[in-house]
Amino acid sequence: MRRFINQNKQQIKSVYCNLCGKQIKIEKGIITEGVATVEQHWGYFSEKDGQIHSFDLCEKCYDMLTEKFVLPVAVTNEKELI
Predict the structure, then answer these.
(1) Please, what is the average pLDDT of the chain?
(2) Which of 2, 45, 71, 73 is most buried, by the most CB atoms less than 10 A from its CB?
(3) 50: in domain
(4) Whole-prediction pTM
(5) Residue 80 lies in a domain
């Protein structure tokens, strides 16, 4: 869950893991540890048509959740880390 300093969401004030509630480290408005962010725009064929759901998971909760998947997460490596 993200909280922003102002309405236009340009600078992050705080981020919390939606699953465990852990506060994610932020320095000068930049997230400084692993966090998975999901934003789902639900469409016509769902029960949530027109809704946008978003959440953040710390790396530990992400690992705990994805290890339960029947089909594993597709993993590729980036050539450059920014």
Answers:
(1) 90
(2) 2
(3) yes
(4) 0.81
(5) no
